[in-house]
Automatic annotation (TrEMBL):
GO terms for cellular component: membrane. This is Amino acid transporter. It is a multi-pass membrane protein. InterPro entries: AA_transpt_TM. Keywords: Membrane, Transmembrane, Transmembrane helix. Its main location: membrane. GO terms for molecular function: L-amino acid transmembrane transporter activity. Belongs to the amino acid/polyamine transporter 2 family. The chain crosses the membrane at residues 53-73, 79-106, 131-154, 160-181, 188-213, 225-251, 263-286, 306-331, 352-373, 379-401, 421-441. It holds the Pfam family Aa_trans. Residues 52-441 form the Amino acid transporter transmembrane domain. It is found in: Membrane.
Length: 465
């Protein structure tokens, strides 16, 4: 353990140095030495996982976070007003950067952590492992479902509802399943570059399209909303920063985990800038007529073109979430008591059949979710309220308190500020969960009362009119 701590403390960049005080206390939480190798000894392994450089990690994070997040931003501006939308994007983005940094610090403190289940084991023993691990699996399966649903909407829009919507959902799920099958994130990282180019191109076409059409409705600086409708829009912005759930797995497959800060800052600068530009431009022109997903704000022809260009990011971002979810289950199955099975890193029938079976299960469930809950914003609201509230915000506060002994929390004015800040983050997570659930459930009830939603497994065209 002592050797591990020393090697981590030398030659690292500012990110690793910033966690030095945590590493000095590592002997408070002694763990078996073999737990520090998530995937075991990869020297002679057929499949090597720890191969990503930081820019590939950044590309994965961008693809995972931006794809669906940016599509709901203009409608959030329409609900909250221009000022409220800008303030929330900048504010929540800044906080998401801090909480992402804390996840990286926790990973450096406990190198054997591969997912939220491992973090839960450190925080609260076996109960914490099962609670956080189960929550991460459910969250990511629902994220996969949202990508299947968006793929359905895209295909319906492109084809003008030429075929049954259930068919398009099935095709979306099958495409995502096939692309999820590579066993390493490094193998998917190149797809993520195409994903980011895809979504940027699609929203650029959308912005050009709405500017050509001209101003379609009034733009408000502020908004006068009920609590439920206003907070539902806030959950859309929270969802746009909800990539933290996969950070542990991304870091675990990096060559140099201490470089995670570079990937994090690249992600947060890029997504916050993109959200602001897309939100302001699309809402400025579409105004009160703004719809979600954002690609539906143009004319019929450009709408089809935008969705066609966006298909790669809709699929690939879903693939990343599906891969992280499958990897959690796969690693849990083949890493017992800190010892990795050879099936984890070798091309064995058992390893591959298990991996394929896990991926198939995830995408079958995602398909069912997309068909049973055939609405977009409210699905994002439920997901954000239940899970993003903690994985993106609240859990990082708990990590800080776990790594900072009581005797050090109030020693200096700066330490007192940090204590208050991270306690506020925990309370923020709890508030977002309760308020977001209330707003989302209220919206769903009102939607069904008004007949706004179609029934489950319907062939009805779900394209944005």
């Amino acid at each position: 353990m002592a050797t591990q701590t020393t090697s981590m403390g030398t030659g690292q960049d500012g990110f690793a140095k910033g966690t030095a005080d945590y590493e000095k206390r590592a002997n408070r939480d002694m763990v078996a030495a073999d737990e520090f190798d998530v995937y075991g000894d990869e020297g002679s392994a057929d499949i090597k996982y720890r191969t990503m450089v930081w820019w590939k990690c950044a590309a994965l994070m961008l693809a995972e976070t931006v794809s669906l997040g940016v599509l709901s931003i203009p409608s959030a501006f329409q609900s909250l007003g221009m000022v409220g939308g800008c303030i929330l994007i900048i504010g929540l983005g800044t906080i998401a950067t801090c909480t992402g940094y804390m996840i990286g610090a926790f990973k450096l403190r406990y190198p054997h952590v591969h997912n939220m289940a491992d973090a839960g084991m450190i925080l609260a023993g076996p109960v914490g492992r099962e609670v956080l691990g189960g929550a991460q699996v459910v969250f990511m399966v629902f994220l996969c479902g949202s990508h299947v649903l968006t793929g359905l909407i895209a295909f319906d829009t492109i084809t003008a509802g030429a075929s049954c919507s259930v068919l398009w959902a099935g095709i979306s799920a099958i495409i995502c399943l096939v692309l999820t099958l590579p066993r390493t994130l490094n193998g998917i990282s190149y797809l993520s570059v195409a994903s980011f180019i895809s979504i940027v191109s699609a929203v650029l076409i959308t912005m050009i399209g709405v500017s050509i059409i001209g101003h379609q409705g009034g733009v408000t600086v502020t908004a006068n909303l009920s609590f439920a409708s206003g907070f539902l829009a806030v959950t859309d912005i929270i969802f746009a920063y909800a990539g933290h759930v996969g950070f542990f797995t991304f870091i675990a497959e990096m060559k140099k985990p201490e470089d995670f800060s570079k990937a994090l800052y690249c992600l947060q600068i890029a997504d916050t800038t993109l959200y602001l530009i897309v939100g302001v431009v699309v809402y400025a022109y579409a105004g009160a007529d703004t719809v979600s997903p954002a690609l539906g704000n143009t004319g019929t022809t450009l709408r089809k073109v935008s969705y066609g260009i966006a298909l790669p990011t809709i699929m690939i971002a879903g693939v990343i979430n599906g891969h992280v979810c499958a990897k959690l289950v796969f690693v849990r199955w083949f890493r017992r008591n800190g010892v990795a099975s050879h099936h984890l890193t070798a091309h064995t029938w058992t390893g591959w059949l298990t991996w394929i079976g896990i991926c198939l299960t995830i995408w079958v469930i995602a398909f069912v979710i997309a068909e049973v809950i055939p609405f977009f914003n409210d699905l994002l609201g439920v997901i954000s309220a239940l899970f993003a509230s903690w994985f993106t915000y609240g859990i990082s506060g708990i990590f800080w308190f776990h790594m900072t002994p009581r005797s050090e929390r109030w020693t200096t004015p700066w330490q007192r500020c940090k204590t208050v800040f991270w306690a506020s983050i925990i309370l923020m997570g709890a508030f977002i969960m309760v308020a977001g659930l209330y707003a989302s459930i209220d919206s769903i009830v009102q939607g069904y009362k008004s007949g706004e939603f179609s029934g489950p497994f319907t062939c009805e065209n779900q394209a944005i009119a």
